[in-house]
Amino acid sequence: MSRYFSKSLVAALALLVVGGVQAQGLATSPGSATPAPDAFHGWSSTYNFGQLGHAADTLLLGIHDSQQIEFSLRRDRIASDANLRLEYTPSPALLPVLSHLRVYLNDVLVSVVPIEKEQLGHKTFRNVALDPRLITDFNRVRLEFIGHYTDVCEDPANNTLWVNIGGRSEIELQEQPLSLQNDLAYFPLPFFDARGQDKPVLSMVFAASPTLGEQRAAGVLASYFGSRAGWRGMRLPVLFDRLPVAEGDNPPTSAIVFATNDRRPPFLADLERFPKVQAPVLQMLDNPGTPHSKVLLVLGRDDEDLLVAARALALGGDLLRGSRVTVNRVQQLLPRQPYDAPNWIRTDRPVRFAELISYPEQLQASGLRPAPINLDLNLPPDLFVWRSQGIPLEVNYRYTPSAVADESRLNINLNNQFISSLPLPSTDDSKLQRLRLAVLSSDPANPLEKILVPALKVGERNNLRFDFNFASTLGSAQRDHCQTTLPPSNQAAIDESSTIDLSGYHHFMAMPDLKAFARSGFPFSRMADLSQTLVMVPAQGTAVQISTLLESLAAIGARSGAPALGLQLSSDWSMAARADADLLVIGGMAAGMGDNPDLNLMLDHLHDWLLEPTSQVMSGASARAGQLNDVRNQAAQRVEVSAQAPIAAFVGLKSPFHEQRSIVALLANDDADYQLLRDTLADGGKMDAVAGSVALLRSSGVDSSQVGEQYFVGHLPWWLMLWFQLSEHPVLLAATVVLIVLLIAFGLWRSLSWVARRRLGQE
């Protein structure tokens, strides 16, 4: 989950003066009639335990006897019915009926599921009704196992006491909509709710042929919603001149409409009901197609007003109130700095664990076998970790000490790999441990790089896990002697003052690296507000092209955790040549840009893939992108085929305009190709496969390869750069070392000779 976007930063960046006026009803123009509201019977949603964070089966034991499943409900919905479809397999050694499962919903017992004789050792399905009156916006279903294998003198740690809870168990919900007031105080509701389980969908509405200024304002809001959606992703369909309508059994989605005084969709053409504005205005209305969908109007005199209104929404949500708000000013008081993305660990000072937690009590655990304590660590992708001794980690931890010395231990794991095991002595309940976490570069220049210990992966979300394992003698069962001991309630905590320190590392990495873009939004997210990014778009974008643009910006916002307040859009490639910025290209690149041979080579071959909608021309072995730059793979044959299936590509390369700038292009030709790009951006598995410098997208999946020469972005001290360059040339390195030794020896010899002559002269 994303960390909170600091309210202090919002206060530093935004100064909003707002005023409220009562909302007016939304009119429809002749010829664009909106269908009358139909009776809507709500949503039917089913979530299996895998979708709720429990992908694998869970084994409940006599000493680890509970499992908790969490699910949420949007605040603008209410549950009318709920059901738990439980899949479980009990141990064949259990005593039937005496053994059972207790089911709790939000700490209220809702059912007891007895384990029958015929169920022992067999997979069983059971429906358990959940009281919908107990369901709130955040809910917990807890399963507790009470198992018995004998009627006298039981050992809770006996290995016959188990029941397996299947990961395909499901929670079924019937949800009904709640009518919300047209009040921006609820924003971002109903347009986005972090409690929703499904991928959010929000329609963006423009007048036909939207201007770059309108697209820019929409891009700011898209990145804002993406930063809020985080791992969920965001779908942002674009509509021209109409509001969304119902699709099948689903009601119309909520929508955001961008309109200026001179460019409005037809349903806002009535100037008596929707007069021209004299300042940036935000207004929330009901969708006339359904009472359960809202429309947010972003209005302005011109495109600059739209941008001000969009920035106000992204920054001043806590100040908004009423159905209509006039934005007087948005002032940036403190510019962002490189690498200050909220989702990345700071690299200028040690970072306390308190700054990394996602919810209160995340660093605490309790119970006979406490649940693991997990902490997510996200590192910038361009940290230069060559020959690093590891990232310093100071861990303070507390626990309830045992009355006697035992084998209790704290196990530390990184990305599911074991790091260290620390004893938990009975003499003290507070410890400080200093560790160094090995770190693994994402540099594609070293594809065979191996590390023998678990490592933090640069540019990825890493998971640091602390397992407190308490040894305890629960009791014993011997012939003619029975003894039972009530186990203590163990408590453990990782102190929030524990730190991880990334300061002192330089920023330097090999490019192009599409993996860094796919997983971190790099190089654009280097400045979290995209103030050093220029987005190149088609001059007249279609709806699906603009959707691709907005969803790309939302994906970058999800990885950085900040809205793109400094976003710049252009369709003029001469501006790209003048701007000192990284280029994000949507659609296609101008052929023959600069003298970059790798760029022109890519364009020549990608032309066959992408710029001919019905013809894909590839030559023998050079059909794979990874073989384009190798003369050994240029075959003597040529194959020409015609195909109608969509194809698209991600391409990364060096900017021909600036040494330290990069280009990432999302290349497509027609709407089907753009839809393929959108589907890939929305699929985490496919994005994980994007790497190298070219990623070819087809319906069969993603094929990534490395093309052309690499280049480096970032800066290193001269001495470190020298050693890094020499490291790839061992003979030259050895010769350099010998030369340095000879120079030092010669200098020492001359110095000693001078000292000897001076001493002899004095004598």
Short description:
The protein has 763 residues and is an alpha+beta fold. The protein is built from eleven helices and 41 strands.
Which keywords apply here?
5 domains; disordered N terminus; single chain; alpha+beta; 763 residues; flat; Jelly Rolls; 7-stranded mixed β-sheet
Textual characterization of the structure:
α2 links the parallel β11 and β12. α5 runs parallel beside α8. The chain has five domains: 162 residues, 2-Layer Sandwich (Chitobiase, domain 2); 135 residues, Sandwich (Jelly Rolls), CATH 2.60.120; 150 residues, Galactose-binding domain-like (Jelly Rolls, Sandwich); 181 residues, no CATH class; 34 residues. It is 18% helix and 30% strand. 37% of the residues are buried. Strands 17, 18, 21, 24, 25, 29 and 30 form a seven-stranded mixed beta sheet that branches. The chain has a seven-stranded mixed beta sheet with strand order 33-32-34-38-37-39-40, sandwiched between helices. The protein has 763 residues and is of the alpha+beta class. The N terminus is likely disordered. The protein contains eleven helices and 41 strands.
